[in-house]
Amino acid sequence: GGEALAKEKHKDIVNVSHRGASGYAPEHTLVSYQMGEKMHGDYIEIDLQMTKDGQLIAMHDEKLDRTTNGTGLVKDYTLAEIKQLDAGSWFNEKYPESANPNYEGLQVPTLEEVFKKFGKNARYYIETKSPETYPGMEKELLRLIDKYDINKKTLLIQSFSPQSLKIMNELDPSVNLIQLISYKNDAVITDDEIAAIKEYAMGVGPNHTYLNEEYVQKVVNSGLELHPYTVNDKDRMKQLIDWGVTGMFTNFPDKLHEVKKGK
Ligand code: G3P
Ligand code: CA
What we know:
The structure is a single chain. The chain has eleven helices and nine strands. By secondary structure, it is α/β, with parallel strands linked by helices. The longest helix is centred in the middle third of the chain and has 11 residues, at 137-147.
């Protein structure tokens, strides 16, 4: 009956640990990613920036200021310099209720370190950030994916930049891609837009704020995956699942796990 169907729907929802379990630990640290796995996140979400010496690191912002004790642009610093920084203490200061002395002095991880720690069969959901600032980042990303023999069946690459995704698609058509979208008001998508995205991507990742049931149904019925970001409220998670999304990004993978269990 309907109830059984609703349960089925909940079961397969892809749980993406956004920047790791970043509601509980400093985003984009190995600790945060590990916590995401423990909390039943299916995927580790990783944002990529590139250092002055061409190393891919896990960081959301182009600048070091918010999530480390450094200042200025990532692209102006070598990896050795960025490795000196403290990527954890800011979290303790900003979120005293979740502070942990073990977070002090955590380092910014390279993508290589993440691959080494979590292995080839972990599920990675990797975003090329500011690809226009970092020419060659797609090629370097693919080099590391191949070097560490990352399982491509479960790998997802995401970007707001269609250009970056198309480069990925040309370099390696076997990699599954997700087109991120940022809506500023009521989300609408045309048949032409869906068709254009389907040329290279297997899903879309819109901000959840302005979604509605009609949008969700249209996208999912077209055969695209739909993974809204960043959903941190359990009632909103339930609503989006009822509308038909196929997964979502959350800073609280434990909450989404509970929702999937019907709690
Ligand atoms: O990648 C999904 C979501 O994280 C996109 O927004 O700014 O948090 O990377 P942002
Ligand atoms: Ca992201």
